[in-house]
Amino acid sequence: MAEEIKSLDELNAVAEGTVAPAEVELAPREPVRDELGRAYATGKRKDAVARVWIKPGSGKVTVNGKELNTYFARPVLQMILRQPFTVSGTEDQFDVMATVKGGGLSGQAGAVKHGISKALQLYDPALRGALKAAGFLTRDSRVVERKKYGKAKARKSFQFSKR
User: How does DSSP assign 136-156, residue by residue?
Assistant: First the structure.
């Protein structure tokens, strides 16, 4: 515990500018895997929440117990799911098992993509740079705007009547 406090003090000293950044060494990130050799992460997009497990394999993707081509029939959604593997250069190296709830298909695809990205960087911390540069580790915070009273929708007004 004292080592953690010491390192925090060192980081504060770097932030204040009293110590040069080269003098403080940060510990490299450790892979986070369960007893079965899987990495787990939660991905979110709009109202969809995805729980994602990845493990070394042949590239098989299962979403809610169905194959990728069955659950996400549109090629665009399948491409969205494969983006983290393309960016990190790990195509067909990991099997993905995901459960996703809420939202529509597009939001669910984005949630699974976010979960895969987070799980990849937990499985192999060396992939973090490429995934972060592509923006896959950041949750897309855009959600549907709420409806306001006195309005037909979020911003649309009722039809104006002059007389």
Answer: -SS-----PPPPPTTSSSSSP
* Three-state secondary structure string covering 37-66: CCEEEEEEECCEEEEEEEEECCCCEEECCE
Indicate the range of 4-13, 28-37, 53-62, 152-161 predicted with least confidence.
4-13
Contacts (Cβ under 8 Å, ≥6 apart) of 30: 125
**Could you tell me the pTM of the whole model?**
0.80
pLDDT attached to residue 42: 97
What's the farthest any 2 CA atoms get from each other in the chain?
Answer: 76
CA-based torsion, 57, 59, 128, 9: positive or negative: negative
| Count of Cβ atoms closer than 10 Å to residue 110 Cβ | 23
